[in-house]
Amino acid sequence: MTGSDVRDVALVTGASSGIGVEIARLLASRGHNLVLAARRTELMEDLAQRLRNSHGVDVLVLACDLSLPGAARSLHKQVVDSGRQVTLLVNNAGATLEGRYLDFATAEQTGSVNLLAVNPAELIHCCLPAMLERGDGRVLTISSLGAYWPCLPGITVYAGSKALVVNLTRTLDAEYRGSGVRFSATVPFTTDTAFIDTPTNREIVGRMPRFMIQTPADVARIAIDGVDAGRIVQHTSVVNRLLAGILKTLPPALVARAIIAFMSLGRDDIKASRS
Ligand SMILES: NC(=O)c1ccc[n+]([C@@H]2O[C@H](COP(=O)([O-])OP(=O)(O)OC[C@H]3O[C@@H](n4cnc5c(N)ncnc54)[C@H](OP(=O)(O)O)[C@@H]3O)[C@@H](O)[C@H]2O)c1
């Protein structure tokens, strides 16, 4: 296959739902060809068909479980083997495990770290060499305000994994500055997607002021604007930025006690950790 036969694409993980769907829509509306990756292929095939019809873009759907070791490498290989090259990588897929550490098998906890941190990092490792060779490329990773909490009891490995990708983004920006490849991490807080439709989150969100809950379309637009503007870390609202600043100054033990007290209202397992 010659260089001119290779098709430039934006690879969006977690494109079957929520923020990933909105990012895919936005990119398609700007004429980007896409690769959509997640586990639920029917949802992505449906979205792909709608994007082809309305924007005339090429869309490839790939099934992958990014909680599995090596999933990023195998996903990237499928993209390359299909004659495509990733010019914009969007690491968006994510989920939480609600409960204390031992409530889940070791494979599940490891899988969560794979999904949130290891596979996103590995996808960047796979895509970066060709981007550097071309002197052009963009990497967007969807982190979370969770990255700024000193600890988050009840979703044990989430905060640390999300912190890793923010730190990785800043570090890669420093290491590859001037190369033509730009790195951006977006930091949303509560966004109205299936992600917050869990017993604990419903309880927390129910007590939050409405203005703090963002739509996935807004988060997608702000994230892509952040990439366009070359912002290394893009908070999705002023409130989130302020919260991130405050959280960094709080003592971890105090934060842990407050979270456990707050979350225990609806959570027997967390309540048990206080006794
Ligand atoms: N919503 C919020 O309040 C919020 C706040 C801060 C950060 N975030 C972050 O935003 C990102 C997108 O979440 P969302 O709010 O749009 O939630 P969502 O609607 O639940 O979407 C999550 C996406 O991730 C994919 N995914 C989950 N597990 C996967 C796996 N093992 N392998 C491959 N794909 C997987 C899901 O696809 P399949 O199930 O089809 O695999 C889905 O497409 C996540 O990284 C999340 O941490 C969300």
From TrEMBL:
Task: Output the Gene Ontology terms for molecular function.
Answer: oxidoreductase activity
Q: Write down a Pfam family by its short name.
A: adh_short
Query: Known SUPFAM superfamilies for this protein?
Result: NAD(P)-binding Rossmann-fold domains (SSF51735)
Tell whether Repressor is among the UniProt keywords. Answer: no
Q: Which Gene3D superfamilies match?
A: NAD(P)-binding Rossmann-like Domain
Signal peptide range in chain numbering: none
Q: Which InterPro entries match?
A: NAD(P)-bd_dom_sf, SDR_fam, VLCFA-Steroid_DH
Its keywords, alphabetically, are:
Oxidoreductase
Xref: CDD domains: SDR_c (cd05233)
The family assignment reads:
Belongs to the short-chain dehydrogenases/reductases (SDR) family.
- Name listed for the protein in its UniProt record: SDR family NAD(P)-dependent oxidoreductase
- Species this protein is from: Nocardioides immobilis
